[in-house]
Specification:
Helix content: under 10%
Number of helices: 2
Strand content: 35-45%
Radius of gyration: 16 Å
Structural class: mainly beta
Order of helices and strands: EEEEEEHEHEE
Length: 152
C-alpha cells in the first residue's frame, strides 16, 4: 500500500534560509486485513544548518480497537529525486529491526488519541541535498512516499 505526499517548499528570496512546517495525515485504508489499516502523520520542517527534518507519527485512526499493536509491518519512507541520475532517498522503519525502531513502536502501542510522539529522520535531506535541488521538483515541490511493507 503506497501513498504519495507533496510538500511545497519556498526559499526566502536571495538567502539560504527556508521556512516551512507541514504535516499530512494518511491511512493505509486499502490494507486487505482490517487489523493493519494504520493511520499516521508525517511532519516536515527545517532541521539544523539547512537540513530538512521528517517525523513519522503513528495515530490511532478510525478503528484503533481493530488494529494489531504493536505494529508488525515495516514502513518505507522515500524522498523522490527530481534528477534521473540521483536515486531516491529511503528509510525503512522496522518494528522488529534496530533497538531505536523497536523501542519506539513498543512505546506507541497503541498511540494515544492525539499522539504527537514521532520517530524522527533528522537528516531526511542534508543541507547539501536540499541546496542542490536534487529532491525539489519545479523549485518548490518535495515528493515523499510512504509504503506499508510486510513484516520482516
Amino acid at each position: 500500500f503506497f501513498f504519495f505526499f507533496f510538500f511545497f517548499i519556498k526559499k526566502a528570496h536571495h538567502t539560504e534560509f527556508f521556512f516551512f512546517f507541514f504535516f499530512f495525515f494518511f491511512l493505509f485504508e486499502d490494507a486487505v486485513d482490517v487489523r493493519h489499516r494504520y493511520a499516521f502523520k508525517l511532519c516536515i520542517w527545517p532541521g539544523t544548518f539547512g537540513s530538512v527534518y521528517l517525523e513519522f507519527i503513528p495515530r490511532r485512526g478510525p478503528e484503533p480497537a481493530a488494529l494489531v499493536w504493536p505494529i508488525q509491518h515495516r514502513i518505507r519512507l522515500s524522498a523522490l529525486s527530481a534528477q534521473p541520475h540521483i536515486l531516491e532517498k529511503v528509510r525503512v522503519l522496522d518494528p522488529s529491526g534496530d533497538k531505536v525502531d523497536r523501542d519506539f513502536f513498543a512505546t506507541v502501542a497503541p498511540p494515544s488519541a492525539n499522539n504527537d510522539e514521532g520517530l524522527p529522520w533528522s537528516n531526511f535531506l542534508t543541507a547539501e541535498e536540499y541546496a542542490s535541488g536534487a529532491f525539489i521538483f519545479d523549485g518548490e515541490l518535495l515528493a515523499v512516499t510512504a509504503e506499508l511493507l510486510p513484516p520482516a
